[in-house]
């Protein structure tokens, strides 16, 4: 078994403290630090603008703005059982970052040219997968199903061998 050595690190990375949060998506990426206020209101009925969850959240954001947090965000997790307490908080600070730059600075990132894709096979195919999603969404409205996890594979063949770093 091979292990990574410190020399492999292209750019030093910070370790997140317990009161930090890391979020990265194709649309927005940020890190947070500090905890201004915890928020445990159950999310049941959270889609109702005048419901308890939304009202409590609005009050928490107003409290954060009054304390000088210019653009408060709320991070954490909402349990699948929305009657259970949420695990959310408003951080004291947050900072956006560039997802592509973060990926380029990752431990195994290397300046490589894009690989030529020879074949791409979806398992299941897009239409079949969308039908599965539609059926799963309908089933969650029944008492028999609480949670659904769907995934699919995309088998990609490239002209050159992929160096996985392993």
Automatic annotation (TrEMBL):
Keyword Isomerase set for record: yes
Keyword Lipid metabolism in annotation: no
Keyword set, alphabetical order: Isomerase
Name this polypeptide is given: Isochorismate synthase
Species of origin: Klebsiella pneumoniae
Family matches, as InterPro entries: ADC_synthase
An annotated Gene Ontology molecular function: isochorismate synthase activity
EC number: 5.4.4.2
């Amino acid at each position: 078994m091979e292990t990574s050595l410190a020399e492999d690190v292209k750019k030093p990375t910070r370790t997140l403290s317990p009161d930090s949060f890391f979020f990265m998506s194709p649309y927005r990426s940020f890190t947070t630090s500090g905890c201004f206020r915890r928020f445990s209101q159950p999310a049941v009925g959270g889609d109702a603008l005048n419901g308890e969850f939304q009202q409590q959240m609005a009050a928490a954001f107003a409290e954060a703005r009054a304390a000088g947090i210019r653009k408060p965000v709320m991070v954490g997790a909402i349990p699948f059982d929305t009657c259970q307490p949420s695990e959310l908080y408003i951080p004291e600070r947050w900072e956006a970052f560039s997802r592509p730059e973060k990926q380029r600075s990752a431990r195994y990132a290397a300046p490589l040219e894009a690989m030529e894709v020879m074949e791409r096979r979806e398992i299941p195919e897009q239409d079949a997968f969308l039908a599965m999603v539609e059926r799963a969404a309908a089933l969650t409205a029944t008492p028999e199903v609480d949670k659904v996890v769907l995934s699919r594979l995309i088998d990609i063949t490239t002209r050159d061998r992929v160096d996985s770093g392993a």
